[in-house]
Amino acid sequence: MSSTTFASFFGWAGLISGLIPTYKQLQRALKVSTHGISIDTWTYICWTNLFWLAYGIAQHGIEIWMSAAVAVPLQIGILLQLEVRKNLKKILSTGLQLLLTCVPTFIWGWKIGILVVGFMSVLNRAPQIIKCIREKDVRGVSVSAWLWSSFCNVMWLVYYLLHNNISAVIVNIPFILTSWLIAYFAFLRQYQSSKNLPVAI
Predict the structure, then answer these.
(1) For 122-165, how does the pLDDT look when each residue is reduced to its tens digit (9 = 90+)?
(2) What is the 8-class DSSP label of residue 124?
(3) Which of 39, 99, 115, 179 would give a disulfide with 149, using CB separation of 3.0 to 4.6 Å?
């Protein structure tokens, strides 16, 4: 097996495992609750996929752009459960924020762009972490979704490592760590409230 084929395996694994957390979070929002789900975090995740879509197309990485393309409908499904009309201004401003974040890509290229967009993506997970710490009711947050998300990022980390794409390797490390943090705090909060309110993890 060639190194390219081996890397491709991890790319496709990242694509498939990336659909699982989004699907699980959508199912939880539909069947359990939307309490605790951060519209800030999920809006940025959705917008960021446009960046990865463009990157995948530019780099001829079918696994990359397909991963972004197939996840967007599910992510939009999650956002539709979070009162889009009330948060339309926030959603549009997040899109503008991503556009401004992409400016370094236009100036210095994809390697710097990945680092900047990746850094902003990590920062935009903070609202979800804060919600899981501060709010008493986070029934809507799927613990398993965030654990699957960390597994997905491990797959992409290996994929980019095999492609010697250090920028993408660097940004996937905090993605993994923040996914674990969200899963931990959501589980902790749900466990604390489970005495009064049964929750399905």
Answers:
(1) 999 999 999 999 999 999 999 999 999 999 999 999 999 999 99
(2) T
(3) 179
Count of domains observed in the chain: 1
Cα 32 from Cα 48, distance rounded (Å): 26
- What token pair was written down for 98? 């991503």
CA distances from 122 to 17, 26, 28, 37, 84 (A): 19, 21, 23, 16, 23
99-105: list long-range contacts, CB under 8 Å, 24+ apart: 102/51, 105/51
Which amino acid is residue 98, in one-letter code? L
Question: Which tokens is 181 given?
Answer: 């943090």
Distance CA 26, CA 142 (A): 9
- Taking a C-beta distance cutoff of 8 angstroms, is the pair 10, 163 a contact? no
- Binned at pLDDT 50, 70 and 90, residue 84 comes out as confident
Question: pLDDT value at position 4?
Answer: 77
Is 198 within a domain? no
Query: Residue 12: which domain range?
Result: 3-193
Residues 6+ apart with CB under 8 A from 131: 36, 37, 38, 138, 141
